[in-house]
Amino acid sequence: MVVAESASPRTVARTVTPALHRLAVLLGVLALIAILGVVLSTRAVDDLTEGLQPASVANQSVLQDLTDLESAVGAWARSGDPGALDDYQQALARLPGHQQVVEQYAADDARLLGLVQQQRAAAERWLDDYAQPRVRAPGGAETFRMARYRNGQRLFEQVRAAHQETSGLFGSRVREASADATWRLRATIASVAVLTLLGWLVVGRSRRRLLAEVSRPLVALEAVVHQMAKDPSARARLDGPREVRSVALALNELADAQSRARAVEQKVTEELRVLDTARDDFVSNVSHELRTPLTTIHGYLEMVAEEFEDTMTPRHERILEASRRNVARLKTLIDDLLTLSKAENRTTTLESVDLVPLVRDAVTDVSITASGRGISLEQDLGAAPVMVLADRPMLGRAFLNVLSNAVKFSLDQGRVSVSLSVEESDDGATAVVAVRDRGIGIPAAELERLGSRFFRASNAVTNEIAGTGLGLRIVQTIVDKHGGDVRIDSEEGRGTRVVLRLPVQTGPS
């Protein structure tokens, strides 16, 4: 039953677009927060790894340089070894570079800068008041002065104290930077997780709405389409977006048109059935009514031939022979019409048939006619049986027609070849019966008309070869009834090859 359409239904675009907009906005915000979080986290990590940590390492190197200087001064004071002076000069050359790295980083941090400057001042006092004077003085145990040594130790302890404060602040800054980078990363992950959950909720809500407003009407429409195949009276509900309702309305109109067409088709079928019955009756009645006078005419002709056998003039003999020939032609035409009518309309009774003896019998039936014209018949039927489901008399008539045509259209002293083989394919086995003659052939322009009722090739008419033009039509009809097909290849003046293909019987006979 068709449900009335509500006023102004929304289109699919108006139903889907808001959900897509919400999802797009949510994805945009999610991407923006993710990018911002990554940028901030990266900046914090870069500041930690490229600025603070190298400055902290450089600050430790400052202490190491001062320690190396203090060791070199002590070695010079104790031994006067010139190598100690070389160590002193190398450490002194390294010290400014490390101090510069520390001071460049601390330039933006007032507290750290103050401690760094205190550390530098303590180092310079130690160098100016103790280290430099001591290395300029002679070295060796005899130059050792306890007062000078104690003053140097006191100044270096001040250096150590200043460095300890600076290192402590550097360590604090490192921990703060690490914590800040970790917090930014966690905040980014949390924000992305919250927005993802929100997006999941939005998608779920949009999915339920789309299912209710778009998907379910489409599924219902699909179900109605399948139902219509079984129940022509089924109709689609006018539900869902405007496009779905339009499709449902068009489907209902199509179903109504099909119902009307089905009724017309049924009426035409009944009329065709009546016409077919009338045609069959007409053919049968006309054939019967024609056979009776033809039989009578044939009898009278034979009586005339016997009574005036020795007294007829050549002219009368020609007239009598022409009459006999035309009576035989009419009788053949009537027989072919009846055979074609039976092939087209009779219910085929199928049985398991071996094609080998059936084809061999057809060859035997035409052998007398062939030998009378010096035509040799070559057979290649094989020894193994080839079983098909067939109406034996009808299929035998088809083989006989093909062989009769091959002999009839062959030249005297010619040759006709008959072969039977089986072809295997994915669709099953197929029996192939091929008949090849070397006769007059068929003009190329007339090949497509083969099989038409009463059609005869022009060269057959020119050569006055008798025939009704129904033989090949009978063959095609019989083979079609058996689920096979007929293929014809011909070349005028070189002969014709007719191939009949039939499905081989499978399973038990």
Structure notes:
This is histidine kinase. Keywords: Kinase, Membrane, Phosphoprotein, Transferase, Transmembrane, Transmembrane helix, Two-component regulatory system. One of its GO terms (cellular component) is plasma membrane. The protein is an alpha+beta fold and 509 residues long. It folds into three domains: 12-218, Four Helix Bundle (Hemerythrin (Met), subunit A); 246-346, Orthogonal Bundle (Helix Hairpins); 347-503, Heat Shock Protein 90, CATH 3.30.565.10. It has ten helices and seven strands. Helix 3 (110-136) packs antiparallel against helix 4. The protein is elongated and about 180 Å long. Residues 1-6 have low confidence and may be disordered.
Q: Main attributes?
A:
single chain; 509 residues; alpha+beta; Four Helix Bundle (Hemerythrin (Met), subunit A); Helix Hairpins; Heat Shock Protein 90; 3 domains; two-stranded antiparallel ribbon; 10 helices; 10% strand; elongated
